[in-house]
Amino acid sequence: MSEAIPIGLKRAAIALAEQLDYTRAADQLEMSSAELRNQVCALERQLCLQIFKPRQKKVQLTKEGEFLIKSFREAVALHGRNKGEKSTTPDS
Question: CA-CA distance, 86 to 84, in Å (whole number)?
Answer without folding.
Answer: 7
